[in-house]
Amino acid sequence: MTTVVPPSAVALSSGPLATNVRSSEPPPPAGPRLDAPDPGGSPTLRQHLGRAARLLLSAIAVGIAYLIDGEVFAPVILLFVIVVPFEKIYPRRKEQKLRRPLVGTDITFALISPLLNVFGVAAAIVIGGLSLFWLPGMLVRPLVAMLPPVAMPIVAFFLFDFLGYWTHRWAHEVPFLWRFHAVHHSPEHMDWISGFRIHPFDGVLIAPAFFFLLAAGFDVELTGILALLQIILGLFFHANVRVRWRWLDRLVANPEFHHWHHANESDAIGHNYAPALPVWDQVFGTFFMPKGDRRPQHYGVDEPMPTNLVGLLTHPLRGVRPQLAKLRHPVRAVRGLIPVVRSLLTEVWAVTRRPTHSVRRQSGPGSTSTNASLFDPDDAPGHAPRFRF
Asked: Helix H segments across the chain?
């Protein structure tokens, strides 16, 4: 199995967010989990203390989340009552148990979501502003003002979904953005609760489209409803249910469509980015729905990832401590931010113009792959992680 990267991708190897790109090299074997216990012996006192500290931090986080939103348990209970029966009646993977590995981690993500949302909203505001999506929104504002009221929700939905396709694709193909989005793709089991595993700084998926619609003159309430709808659909699409629309597969997204997006199989990676309308994947060449009875067999990412809440939240921030020290000096922080934003926008533009086939793995159907070797080679097993400004 090889990883094919076009010469044009070398353009991403310079600048403040530089990353090396490998080509035509078989990926190294996947490394062990970052926090996996020593297979040759029992857990040490340090490991016990670390586990206790993580449990304590998780309990404190749940308590704070409860203070922020007293109904923090309601979404989890509602999803359990509605989705789990369908998973038992129409299971995609019959052998998958309700108490599958790391289900506790995902439930904790769900329970502390009000607390994470505080940081997520702050990050979304920053990302939405820096993305500059509000500029084209202001340009089309006169055209939006000419729309009849009945057409506003329809146009807003199509625009939001179109922009969601591209921001989702950038989150996969821009190495710096993939750092955060990889947390969402780290579950190796898809079910009713796995969709909650998402980093609060992964707001790039919604924030730019949200800012665009607001700047274009669409109603705040309508824009908020579209964002909420995308979140709800995303949770449903992760469920372990056997659902396909058959002839509607090319028109409306469903769990089958999104499960292939999460599949860690070489010919499936880099596909099915659309939030609700697969037409965008068909237009831009990223649609993937195999015919017949083939189903995803492998999920997750092969790059070493933590398995606990604290580790997953801090893992994308590895190597940034020297950069955070600059925040003590406002002038230096602003000066350092400008080249970062410029480099990030340059990479986004390069990814947008890059041929679709350059991000596909050329190997047999169903074979596993190494996500890190495609999106962030420096973080692949055997390569020291790097973060440069």
From this structure: 45-68, 73-89, 103-111, 113-130, 134-139, 141-145, 152-173, 175-185, 207-216, 220-237, 255-262, 279-284, 309-314, 321-325, 330-353, 371-375
Distance CA 38, CA 42 (A): 7
pLDDT in tens, 73-97: 888 888 889 888 988 888 888 888 8
Of the candidates 253, 251, 254, which has an alpha carbon nearest to the alpha carbon of residue 243?
254
Question: What is the predicted pLDDT for the residue at 129?
Answer: 84
Rounded to two decimals, the pTM is 0.78
Name the residue type at position 26.
P
Can you state the percent helix, strand and coil of the chain, rounding each to 5?
A: 60, 0, 40
Q: How far apart are CA 357 and CA 64, in angstroms?
A: 46
pLDDT digits (tens, 9 = 90+) for 175-223: 888 999 999 999 999 999 999 999 999 877 788 899 999 999 999 999 9
Task: Report yes or no on 2 lying in a domain.
Answer: no
Looking from the CA of 150 toward its CB, the CA atoms found within 13 Å total 0
Q: Per the domain annotation, does 38 fall within a domain?
A: no
User: For 232-242, what is each residue's pLDDT tens digit?
Assistant: 888 889 999 98
List the beta bridge partners of residue 241: 91
CA distance 207 to 209: 6
Domain count, the chain: 1
Cα–Cα distance for residue pair 326/345, rounded to 1 Å: 22
Q: What is the token pair recorded at 263?
A: 């599949």
> Which is nearest to 249 in space by CA: 270, 272, 266, 226?
272
Calculate helix-pair angle for 73-89, 103-111, nearest 10 degrees.
140
For 91, phi then psi, to 5°, come to -75, 140
- The answer to whether the CB of 365 falls within 8 A of the CB of 298 is no
Domain assignment present for 260: yes
Whole-number Å distance between alpha carbons of 172 and 268: 13
* Residue 83 domain boundaries: 49-292+302-379
Helix axis angle for 152-173 and 220-237, nearest 10°, is 50
Model confidence at 346: pLDDT above 90: no
Q: What's at 88, amino acid-wise?
A: K
pLDDT digits (tens, 9 = 90+) for 378-389: 443 333 333 333
Q: Is residue 42 part of a domain?
A: no
